[in-house]
């Protein structure tokens, strides 16, 4: 049996931002919640570089993303989450040299020095180290760990689905996801290395949700994003699967719990 809770919005915040930076201001508590889009946490450009042409995303793995770094001294609490964009096409640059790529490597005769998993770990360490050594940053940085997806029967673009998943998994039912686990490992390693390099008065805390929420395959939008009221999930005439989303979270449970954990960390550390 599931207990249903009802939540009521007590205040409508004013959005004073734009698409790049959304700023939600809550007048009753003089609180501002800001959302900044930084898919990789490091500098990114689509301009040509060496033998990588224009249009392909190029990541400077040793340079933190200035789109959020320039603002960190204004914030009391910063929550970071990243990882899944490293499955997208991209080029990896270290010390002004192309060292690897994801879904892009023109010279198959040469071995890449860094793959997307390694690149993720480097990006986490780069961003967190920059924050932990910034002379004027004294805030609390919380790293929410890699979010597990639950596609079954294929990847997100190959018919994968979490249709019919209405209850959490039980002990013994969990199927380990190697990619999720190794990405989580790289993230935790990058976090630990940054902590050891910290020189300022800021705080770094890990909010580890990965393993626990591997059990929550019922918490995704799944077929619920479909406009079909009957949620029919059979393939269409062209053979393509219907819209599925087993990566993001919106159903009751996971995100609510993340917020409760987040608030507890903030209350304890501030």
UniProtKB/TrEMBL annotation:
Coiled coil: none annotated. Residues 14-264 form the Trichome birefringence-like C-terminal domain. Residues 215-228 have a biased composition (Basic and acidic residues). Pfam families: PC-Esterase (PF13839). Residues 215-244 are annotated as: Disordered. Belongs to the PC-esterase family. TBL subfamily. This is Protein trichome birefringence-like 18. It comes from Coffea arabica. The gene is LOC140023215.
